[in-house]
Amino acid sequence: MITVRNFCPFLICFAMLVAGCGVSLGAEEEQEQRRTVRVEVLGRTDIEHVLRYVADLKPYAEVKIFSPVPDRILHFPWENGDEIKRHQRVALIRKEGIDKGLEQIVAQMEALDVQIKNAEAELERSRGLLAAGVITRQVFDQVQTGYLAALAQRKALEAGRGQMAVTASNAVILAPMDGVIANKMLEKGDMAIPQMPLCTIMAIDRLKVNLDLVETDVPKVHVGQKVHIRLDAYPKRDFTGELTRIMPYMNAATRTNSVEITLDNPGGENGERLLKPGMYGIAELVVDRKLGVLAAPEPALLLDNQLLARQKKDEILRKAFVIDEAGSALKRIVRLGVRKGSYYEILAGLTEGERIVVRGQHGLKDGEKVEIVGVLQPPHASTVAKPAEGSSASPAESGSKPPAEDQKR
Fold first, then answer.
1. Which of 22, 165, 335, 363 can pair with 348 through a Cys bridge, CB separation 3.0 to 4.6 Å?
2. Do the strands 280-297 and 329-340 form a parallel or antiparallel pair, or are they unpaired?
3. 408 confidence band (pLDDT: 50, 70, 90)
């Protein structure tokens, strides 16, 4: 039989047990409700300030070939893509009409020579008559004027014959430079006219790229600077060119400054040129290199409307969260510098060795308790400064690789 005296200790023990279970369940529930985050340890690395512009390959030189002789094409054996050497014959134009014109001019000159000889004799006779007072000065002047007019007419015919002879010689059209035939417009038997090009000759042993730099980038470049060009056709290969010309004027409409880059066009295994005019890619100009700077991954740096409103000109402000030893998220205002790949230089707001949240930071509150599920080590300097060819720059990890969605972020 349980008395009141025996039952009281039992109630006290039961209450203590229930209270203890409540505390334990609350702690487990709080642990389950914590946000899980992935962090990266902030470290130092080398960062290059790189200007990137769209690169469109063009021939180093391009010449349109015209026929100065408006006549039938007798010989034009070339096809698009054929290689041609300087002074090699491109086409032959019929010139019978010009030859006939030359014969006519020669006949006119021969007839005029007879007139000039007679006019010269008449001038000498008139000079004697003028001295004897037989004729007036006016009559003598008329004879002299006729003689001089005949000489001028012959000189004009001679110039016309020379010009026509040059035109006749141009019926044999020669290549002005080494290159390849492109944009062939006419064929043998067509009528050549001076206003329509027969074809185009492109010099492709070297190529050029024209870039339109924005005004703030102009002071950062100089003639002789090396330029790395990555093309869509060769994603795993890097081609090097040289900045050879900076235009001494700005484009007033676009506020840009044109620069020219030249690069060699190497031959492939089959003897063909690797690069072709019209290929598309990205030109990279390294204008600054910083060694051992603090860098943070872009996914960890959050945009914030209030920060955007307060940032000054040429200033980049972002929001980030770091995790302290107690597992609390601490909000930081970060000022950024140059960017390289997926990393930004940290100018202020973070310190080396801190754990910055790279996943799970969206919606995170200052002081909120979190659970760390993965820690990435700081990237090696070469990973940030020189990403592997054909792949995007990503942090080197210790342990397991982050999920695919982390890489996309």
1. 335
2. unpaired
3. very low
